[in-house]
Amino acid sequence: MSYQSSSHLFMIEPKVFYSNKQTADSNHYQISHKENEDINAIKDNALKEFNNLKNQIEKHGIKVTSMIGSDKCPDHIFPNWFITFDDKTFQLFSMNAENRRLEKTPEMINFLLKDYQLKGDLTEYEEKEMFLEATSSMVFDRVNRIVYAASSSRTNPELTKKWCKDNDYELVLFETESHKGSSIYHTDVFMYVGQKVIGICFDVILPEYRDLVKEKVSQFHDVFEIEKSQILDFCGNSLEARNNANEYFIIMSSRAFNALSENQKTALSKYYKDIIHADLTTIEKYGGGSARCMLNELF
Question: What is the pTM of this model?
Fold first, then answer.
């Protein structure tokens, strides 16, 4: 049986954490820290949040492997520079911000090489100003071999098309508009794909693409609709995972959980044994990313 979701997740413990100036232009959900703010206090709070989320996930029987990040990488807590596949291969991707390119450390690549074969590497496209930021740029329907991708400065349309053609994935490419009027920087901000259900906000997708996306997501899945206002609370930045008992869970931040209506929580309970959530206030504020951004899947 093919699985959409993994029972083994990868996380990176932050050695440093603060608002990354190199990503601020494209990430409309990130707030810059003030000059007089204590960087060490921000990191300490982020570390507590990291550990709380990791512990919550592990309590539900989902395996988590973590490594310690680099002091040169303020966004290392978001491991969205690689993808693993169930044929035990992995690929590396091109990152927009220069300090995010440093996240592909030899130690972490060597860790992956213990269990996976490197099948593709898009790093060379960084010099060509063509970026495709792995699981954040591309939301995967792994079972049906479909990639959903929203064009942005971090998701180059031509490179996305090339990757999907080279790897035999059908591409559903579209454009979005954030609350600030330009493209949403990552597709995983407003959608996720589970074994039986897809969570998605249609309202941030430009009208000319909306029917296409609606038709496609409903082809193999039930659809859980997320409201436009809920994107600001990171409700779309969620990830499905399963434990060794093959019980399914959806992982999100407490902010996202609290932004869901009771009807929405009831709807999700049809697909998931529980909603795993933890407070990620600091990480969301200064990093502009939430629970899904902090997790990568080890298939």
Answer: 0.96
